């Protein structure tokens, strides 16, 4: 019971961390991004990747070590829809991460480097899409927790 509680707490806190990190990325992704703000964006994006990885581990921990047991989840198509939605979120996050890494590399080579407003806008659109997909994940999680799809 304690393991289930700790996994549930970790799962929820990691979701909140991801929401916070996505909001921070959106705040930092604005024209004129350079220097310290670009470095901060890189650190924030790394935290996002770490939090997402830990969220997956906590989530699967809940599936296989939680009180409901894996049978509650694996036979539920809503669970699989949630997994697919989270995987889509992960795929959406690849391009922004690659752009941020490239920008940081360019800034190390040229301290005056700034990504173009168009590049920043493109990454912002993807982060908005990630945020929307996270809403889909939350809706599916709420449905699944109530046994919808069983």
TrEMBL record:
Keywords: Membrane, Transmembrane, Transmembrane helix. The keyword Transferase does not apply. Pfam families: DUF2214. The chain crosses the membrane at residues 6-26, 46-65, 77-94, 131-149. It comes from the Bacteria. This is DUF2214 family protein. It comes from Kaistia nematophila.
